[in-house]
């Protein structure tokens, strides 16, 4: 029987238990993947601690991974046993084996290994929709990306620069700022020692930014709005510091007829065509060398609780993976 991390009740990292789970028969359109690595993401924390409601208890956390197809269910087309695949947005990645719908699997190009894929699918495709669809970034744009040294932040900084933008980031502490500067950022503001609103104003000669990408939430709102140009866009795609508190929508008018959105990856990859388009763009930009994927931390899957503690304490940088 395969082993998995199982959450029996909502709570802290200690509610995650390493145990064997039943291997069920495959249904139509499903494949079984022998995992080689799973990605670590804040959304895993949100489901574990109840910020997001899990569909049922107990459950196996995790939303992205990569490995090898070891079994095909009925009516599966386009995949074979032995294919290397990756997926994201699928429940149950913290497991030695995972059952995935075939139409949610993406065949990996030879140039991308499974550990890199596990580290980049959810974070990289998030960067793709943020930079190419939510706000199509290009030459002449100035963007601000919070959590610049995080998993999405390191990918987004490189990709935004590749698209021609001027890229400003925020990070906590000199080491994280230095890491972000190695990954495409023109300027990185240390929010622990600087007022990021004043710093953005100074860096842009008062012109401010076209778009702010914010995965932090409570700690950066509403100050992020003061970093935007008139009719600029605030994009909230996470809440690592806690939920943005309720506010009067009139503040968007007061601060310059601003726009605000709360997108998600599922909203941009709901169809197979959308999923393939986003993944292809990610594979291409990584294979070209324009975006490098740096795996900063590796944890054995059985020690997922330690991985969550590190992630929640903000002691991690870049991408983290759980290895099997």
UniProtKB/TrEMBL annotation:
Occurrences of domain Enoyl reductase (ER) (ranges): 11-322
Keywords, comma-separated and alphabetical: NADP, Oxidoreductase
A Pfam family recorded for this sequence: ADH_N
InterPro entries with a match to the protein in the record: ADH-like_C, ADH-like_N, ER, GroES-like_sf, NAD(P)-bd_dom_sf, QOR-like, Quin_OxRdtase/zeta-crystal_CS
NCBIfam families the UniProt entry points to: PRK10754.1
Record's keyword annotation contains NADP: yes
UniProt name for this protein: Quinone oxidoreductase
GO cellular component: cytosol
A molecular-function term among this protein's GO annotations: zinc ion binding
Matching SMART domains: PKS_ER
């Amino acid at each position: 029987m395969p082993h998995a991390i199982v959450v029996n009740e909502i709570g802290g990292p200690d509610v995650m238990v390493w145990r064997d789970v039943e291997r069920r028969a495959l249904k139509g359109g499903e494949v079984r993947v022998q995992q080689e690595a799973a990605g670590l993401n804040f959304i895993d924390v949100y489901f574990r601690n109840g910020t997001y409601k899990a569909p049922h208890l107990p459950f196996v956390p995790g939303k992205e991974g990569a490995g090898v197809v070891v079994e095909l269910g009925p009516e599966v087309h386009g995949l074979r046993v032995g294919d290397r695949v990756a997926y994201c947005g699928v429940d149950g990645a913290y497991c030695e084996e995972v059952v995935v719908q075939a139409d949610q699997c993406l065949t990996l190009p030879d140039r991308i290994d499974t550990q890199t894929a596990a580290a980049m699918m959810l974070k990289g495709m998030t960067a793709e929709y943020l930079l190419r669809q939510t706000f199509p970034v290009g030459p002449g744009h100035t963007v601000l990306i919070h959590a610049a040294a995080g998993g999405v932040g390191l990918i987004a900084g490189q990709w935004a620069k590749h698209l021609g933008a001027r890229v400003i980031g925020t990070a906590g502490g000199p080491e994280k700022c230095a890491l972000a500067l190695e990954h495409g950022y023109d300027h990185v503001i240390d929010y622990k020692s600087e007022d990021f609103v004043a710093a953005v104003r100074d860096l842009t000669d008062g012109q401010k930014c076209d778009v702010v990408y914010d995965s932090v939430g409570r700690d950066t709102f509403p100050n992020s709005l003061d970093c935007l140009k008139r009719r600029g866009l605030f994009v909230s795609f996470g809440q690592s510091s806690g939920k943005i508190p309720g506010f009067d929508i009139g503040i968007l008018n007061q601060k310059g007829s601003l726009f605000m959105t709360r997108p998600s990856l599922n909203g941009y990859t709901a169809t197979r065509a959308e999923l393939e388009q986003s993944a292809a763009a990610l594979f291409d930009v990584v294979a070209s060398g324009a975006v490098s994927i740096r795996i900063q931390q590796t944890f054995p899957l059985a020690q997922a609780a330690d991985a969550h503690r590190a992630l929640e304490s903000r002691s991690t940088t870049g991408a983290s993976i759980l290895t099997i």
